[in-house]
Amino acid sequence: MSAITTSEALRALYGEPQELAVTKEMRRLDSHARRFLEKSPFVLIGSSAPGRLPDVSPKGDRPGFTLVLSDDRIAIPDWPGNNRLDTLENVIANPAVGLLFLLPGMGETLRINGQAEIRTDRDILDRMAVRGKAPISALVVATDEVYFHCAKAFMRSKLWDPETRIDRETMPTLGAMLKDQAGLEGDLGEIDRALEQGCRATLY
Question: Is the distance from CB of 62 to CB of 41 less than 8 angstroms?
């Protein structure tokens, strides 16, 4: 097994980036990035902090749930969850985050990298309210890098192809997996029902 341990060795293997891969990078949102955010219902947030493993957490809601505050600031609502707070704890220690926004059925993605802070400003939270309820906080990200990513990963994986969708019955339920992993006791059916009810009851 050969490990690549230097940037020089890495570049020798892959070469330099294509010119467009560099020149497409923007510092601020343009009209295309704004439109993508208006339609996107899902984002993956990458964060890290000293002494902790890196984390990638999913966030999703109705299309356009990410609020554009300006050409260089966006806000992502944080709704009730399991209170692990992996992303938020990381941001307190290290504000640098990487965001990957997706559109169902579209192979291209929008990447935004920048500096995040946790905000509880009422004027921001109220603008993201759902069913009359505002999020607990918002992750406000100041953009440093904004660019579109090509569709190769989606083409290779056929992620949006209906024929590649798995039969959910081929995988255990979340309750079954947690029962094995966390040693949960009790009837599996009751565990599954409790998990589903808990999700529905704390969506907002």
Answer: yes
Q: What is the pLDDT of residue 84?
A: 95
pLDDT at position 1: 73
Between CA 59 and CA 78 the distance in angstroms is 8
Other Cβ atoms closer than 10 A to 138: 25
Task: Report the CATH architecture of 14-157.
Answer: Roll (2.30)
CA distance 73 to 141: 6
pTM: 0.94
pLDDT, mean over the chain: 96
Percent of residues, the chain, with pLDDT higher than 70: 100
Asked if 146 and 33 touch (Cβ cutoff 8 Å), the reply is yes
Location of each CATH 2.30.110.10 domain in the chain: 14-157
